[in-house]
Amino acid sequence: MKDTENILSNPRDQAEEVRALQDTIYVIGGKWRLPIINSICNGNKRFREIERSIPGITTRMLSRELKEMELNKIIKRTVYPDSPVLVAYESTEYCTTFGNIILEMIKWGIEHRKMIIDKD
Amino acid sequence: MKDTENILSNPRDQAEEVRALQDTIYVIGGKWRLPIINSICNGNKRFREIERSIPGITTRMLSRELKEMELNKIIKRTVYPDSPVLVAYESTEYCTTFGNIILEMIKWGIEHRKMIIDKD
DNA sequence: CAGAATCCTCGACGATACTG
DNA sequence: CAGTATCGTCGAGGATTCTG
């Protein structure tokens, strides 16, 4: 099984990797999923709080995404029926599995910004 | 500066992180960027070769993305003017900076698929 | 082989206003 | 506060055909 000429993993592995990559992109695709997950993982719980923590997002998009993410068990939504309606969003275990991806993306974004500045 | 009640980093850091995250999403957003980068980093060089390595992509999208990624110095395009036109795409250093993100996303995708199977 | 040209669809996303 | 309801746009992406 030696294949010194080819550094690459075999075609089957490659095919599996592309699929895995595409699956992931499908799940966390779009502009808002990851920022929302990140915000909630950072401890933001209230709707307006999350909203304010993500530049550019609208209530409509936040509402939509939260709803679907709740269905997919990515987050947990709890209503406390006190006087002023209180709702809290919290991360689930599932939610935390995105941690490394988010970390790497934040790292990249910071490095990228440095690069841009250096170039000017 | 002790703040034992708050595990979170301070608001300024959080704001920077969201921005970084959004920057990254902007750069690698869409269905095709990362799969293409991945394919090229895996050693695929020819147009049809890359195309075949990415399930679902059309020549139109591949063409569009490659063109823009060349402009952004994410990849390098070389034409060898031999008898049958030969073109080779190669990764640049810049291209490799996405490595960790892609790796984490592949990991996640593979784990995710396992989960789905176990649940059935 | 390596694409360009065309035409088209549809859904992600935005803006704004309103509700309990 | 925590959303819902409407309306609208625009561009990512798809399907197909054609070219050197």
From TrEMBL, chains A, B:
<dbReference type="InterPro" id="IPR036390">
    <property type="entry name" value="WH_DNA-bd_sf"/>
</dbReference>
<keyword id="KW-0238">DNA-binding</keyword>
<dbReference type="InterPro" id="IPR036388">
    <property type="entry name" value="WH-like_DNA-bd_sf"/>
</dbReference>
<protein>
    <submittedName>
        <fullName>Helix-turn-helix domain-containing protein</fullName>
    </submittedName>
</protein>
<dbReference type="Pfam" id="PF01638">
    <property type="entry name" value="HxlR"/>
</dbReference>
<dbReference type="InterPro" id="IPR002577">
    <property type="entry name" value="HTH_HxlR"/>
</dbReference>
<keyword id="KW-0805">Transcription regulation</keyword>
<keyword id="KW-0804">Transcription</keyword>
<feature type="domain" description="HTH hxlR-type">
    <location>
        <begin position="10"/>
        <end position="117"/>
    </location>
</feature>
